[in-house]
Design a protein that fits this description.
366 residues, 2 domains, alpha/beta, Rossmann fold, disordered N terminus, branched-chain 2-oxo acid dehydrogenase activity, globular, mitochondrion, Transketo_C/PFOR_II
């Protein structure tokens, strides 16, 4: 089976590090409440979305390393049995080939849903994503593309990302910033089961190739009520998940649960925090963030990726351009360290609740 798959299985079956996930309210089919719903975790929500995608479009295919038996994290469980190995199938251990095959499959009129087993291994596919998928429509004058149309259904690339408690430097990275520099693709990261299902279905049906990063830490830890039927959530639309007046916090994915804990602690000291989930990083919702920063006058951005060159830097630059005269303090960033992702020293690397809380206090008292 190979060391990589053995390690992956251990990661998928034993998320030992504890972090309270952010939970959203019960929702209906369009994501807003009171429908037929079932309490499931994040990986089950993704599994539901894939079942729906394959069931509603016979041109849809799911492929990647070990997806036929369910994948390392079991997100593709049952797909091969239900839809057959012609539509859900394994690939060689070659990320460049997986994405290149997906581009060709989409260009031939199919809905390609590719899985990269870990986001840490997406780098061999970088050329295919950046120079082929993202530019296919542009360089052909819209004669060919790997987005959604009647002739060209689309390409979605799924990849588990982020810390997991014991993954080390090959199973813990957050590479989203590399792809946020690329016109022609979208980058989406959910924070909860409801989001994971609705956003993934939106990505699969979007007219552009999409990289969909899944927070593997929350695969089993995040549990909430999720509609059982088909629904979609809008892309490029941030969500204010906590109202506040003193400081704006901006994040995405699993990091939001840590930020929420810091907000709760700050509230005990009389600091009112507004918390925003971007959901889509490319293109991101500048207007929602700007409106919040103009109200609070302060902003803190947090992500697991290293601070230098992280997507938080782009958000910071945009805020300074748009809200400079409204800022009461410099833009704060609480991120991963500028080191390879460590194993034993992961707790020191991570942007923890206490680090965020200290930055909140320093920014408010600037």
């Amino acid at each position: 089976m190979g060391l990589r798959n053995i390690i992956g299985k251990r990661l998928g079956l034993g998320l030992v590090r504890r972090r309270k996930p952010f939970s959203t309210a019960t929702c209906d089919g369009d994501g807003n409440g009171n429908g037929n719903a079932k309490s499931i975790n994040l990986y089950s929500a993704i599994n539901q979305a894939l079942h729906i995608a394959l069931e509603t479009d016979n041109r849809a295919f799911v492929f990647g390393e070990d997806v036929s038996f369910g994948g390392v994290f079991r997100c593709t469980t049952g797909l091969s049995d239900r839809f057959g190995k012609a539509r859900v199938f394994n690939t060689p251990l070659c990320e460049q080939g997986i994405v290149g095959f997906g581009i060709g499959l989409a260009a031939m009129g199919n809905r390609a849903i590719a899985e990269i087993q870990f986001a840490d291994y997406i780098y061999p596919a970088f050329d295919q994503i950046v120079n082929e998928a993202a530019k296919f429509r542009y360089r052909s004058g819209n004669q060919f593309n790997c987005g959604v149309s009647n002739k060209f259904p689309g390409l979605t690339i799924r990849a588990p990302y982020g810390a997991v408690g014991h993954g080390g430097h090959y199973h813990s990275q957050s590479p989203e910033a590399f792809f946020c520099h690329v016109p022609g693709i979208k980058v989406v990261i959910p924070r909860s089961p409801r989001q994971a299902k609705g956003l993934l279905l939106s990505c699969i049906r979007d007219p552009n190739p999409v990289v969909f990063f899944e927070p593997k830490w929350l695969y089993r830890l995040a549990v909430e009520e999720v509609p059982e039927h088909d629904y979609m959530l809008p892309l490029s639309e941030a969500e204010v998940i906590r109202q506040g007046s003193d400081i704006t916090l901006v994040g995405w994915g699993a990091q939001l649960s840590v930020m929420e804990q810091a907000c709760n602690e700050a509230e005990k000291d009389g600091i009112s925090c507004e918390l925003i989930d971007l959901k889509t990083l490319l293109p991101w919702d500048k207007e929602t963030v700007e409106a919040s920063v103009r109200k609070t006058g302060r902003v803190l951005i947090s992500h697991e990726a290293p601070v230098t060159g992280g997507f938080g830097a782009e958000i910071s630059a945009s805020i300074v351009e748009r809200c400079f005269l409204r800022l009461e303090a410099p833009v704060a960033r609480v991120c991963g360290l500028d080191t390879p992702f460590p194993l034993v020293f992961e707790p020191f690397y991570m942007p923890t609740k206490n680090k965020i809380l200290d930055a909140i206090k320093a920014t408010v008292n600037y």
